[in-house]
Every structure is written in structure tokens, then in C-alpha cells.
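We were asked to recover a plausible sequence for a given structure. The inputs and outputs are reproduced exactly as logged, with field labels preserved.

PROBLEM: sequence recovery
POSITIONS: 239
GIVEN STRUCTURE:
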């Protein structure tokens, strides 16, 4: 009797193990099938996307409202130099222009709602300059604004400059887009634009570690580098 019970228990355990194995196998098969279906759908969508004409990419880009990544994908698929590309640029700028004005309006209303004496407006060509006016602009407030400043968001909708102003209309430049591209020449200290100036990478030692650092040079120092060779270490530093 004991042996029969033992055999029965073993059979029960084996049945449960088999059932669990079968369930696990079934789930794995379903997962793979889902993946295959999604891959097929994705491949079909990619094929449809590739067949779109510039006019169709432009139309799709205009239709999309709340998916920036999808909109940029259609925009990037439009060949540069075409009429469709020019129209797309114009369309995006018109939308961003509205967003810049709305940004200032919303910011002013939000600040007034929490009891802060505050004004915000845009100015300059195409309203690319944003002005925040506080009645009392203290160093503490400037510090807090700098810590919470949403530079990337402002850049994306086309702002070029943000100015803080106090009650006496004294101005403090919080951010200017051109400053993001300014560096000093490694040799003479002149201000250079990193988008157009000469640059080269150099390995800097930090104890036992070495890290690549990009150094920038003005045109005059570039010619000196050319005469001396590639080694930036041969060039006297302005420091």
C-alpha cells in the first residue's frame, strides 16, 4: 500500500512537472510568435515609409501633432534643396513661432497665479528673444532660475536668447544660443566658434588614466600648428 501511494505521488509530481513544462513551452512559443508578427508588421511599415514621396512625407509631417520623433523622421526623409524641404522648414518655423509666443503667455499666467509679480514677452526678429521681468530680481532668484532653466526645450522651439529684467529695467542675459558654440583658442585665448574653427583631440593623463580632450584653435594658431606639426604640446599655451 505504501509503495502504491509512493508511486502515485511520483506520478502526480511528474504530471505537474510535465504540465508546467508544457505551459512554459506554450508561453515561449506564443512570445516568439508575437515577436515574429511585430517584426513582420514593422517590416511592412518600413517598406511603406520608404515608398513615400517627398510630398507624402510633407503631408504626414503636417498631420502629426504630438509625436515629435515621428514628425522629425518624416522631415529628415525629405531631400534637402527641394521645394518640399523649404515648405517643411517654413511650416515648422510658423508652428514654433506660435509656441514661442504661447510660452511667454503661459509663463506669465503661471507666475501670476502663484502670486509673483512677473511679466514675460517676446521680441526681436520672429520673436526669438524671451524676456522675463521680475519686480525684485535678487541673486537668490537668479540662482534658482538658472538651476531650473529648460534650455533644451527653448532651443527646440527656436528661442535664441533669454533675458532677465528687474523693476529698474536692468538686464541680465540668462542664456544666448551663440554662447553654446563659443570656446577659447587653446594657444592665444581668442574666442572661436567650435562649429567652424580648427580642432584636434589630445589625450590628457589623470593619474594612470588617459582621456581624450578636444582642443580648439583660431586660424592664426592653426597655421602655427601646421608649421610645427600635429603635436599640440609644441604650441605654447596662453595659460
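RECOVERED SEQUENCE:
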Amino acid at each position: 500500500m505504501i509503495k502504491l501511494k509512493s508511486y502515485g505521488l511520483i506520478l502526480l509530481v511528474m504530471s505537474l512537472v510535465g504540465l508546467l513544462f508544457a505551459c512554459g513551452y506554450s508561453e515561449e512559443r506564443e512570445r516568439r510568435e508575437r515577436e515574429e508578427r511585430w517584426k513582420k508588421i514593422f517590416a511592412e511599415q518600413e517598406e511603406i515609409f520608404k515608398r513615400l514621396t517627398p510630398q507624402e512625407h510633407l503631408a504626414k509631417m503636417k498631420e502629426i501633432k504630438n509625436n515629435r520623433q515621428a514628425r522629425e523622421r518624416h522631415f529628415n526623409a525629405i531631400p534637402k534643396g527641394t521645394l518640399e524641404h523649404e515648405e517643411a522648414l517654413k511650416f515648422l518655423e510658423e508652428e514654433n513661432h506660435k509656441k514661442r509666443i504661447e510660452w511667454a503667455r503661459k509663463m506669465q499666467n503661471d507666475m501670476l497665479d502663484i502670486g509673483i509679480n512677473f511679466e514675460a514677452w517676446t521680441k526681436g526678429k520672429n520673436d526669438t528673444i524671451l524676456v522675463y521681468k521680475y519686480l525684485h530680481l535678487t541673486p537668490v532668484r537668479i540662482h534658482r532660475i538658472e538651476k531650473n532653466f529648460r534650455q533644451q526645450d527653448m532651443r527646440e522651439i527656436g528661442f535664441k536668447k533669454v533675458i532677465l529684467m528687474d523693476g529698474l529695467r536692468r538686464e541680465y542675459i540668462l542664456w544666448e544660443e551663440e554662447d553654446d558654440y563659443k570656446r577659447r583658442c587653446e594657444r592665444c585665448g581668442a574666442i572661436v566658434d567650435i562649429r567652424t574653427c580648427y580642432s584636434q583631440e589630445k589625450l590628457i593623463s589623470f593619474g594612470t588614466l588617459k582621456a581624450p580632450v578636444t582642443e580648439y584653435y583660431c586660424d592664426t594658431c592653426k597655421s602655427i600648428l601646421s608649421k610645427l606639426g600635429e603635436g599640440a604640446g609644441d604650441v605654447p599655451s596662453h595659460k
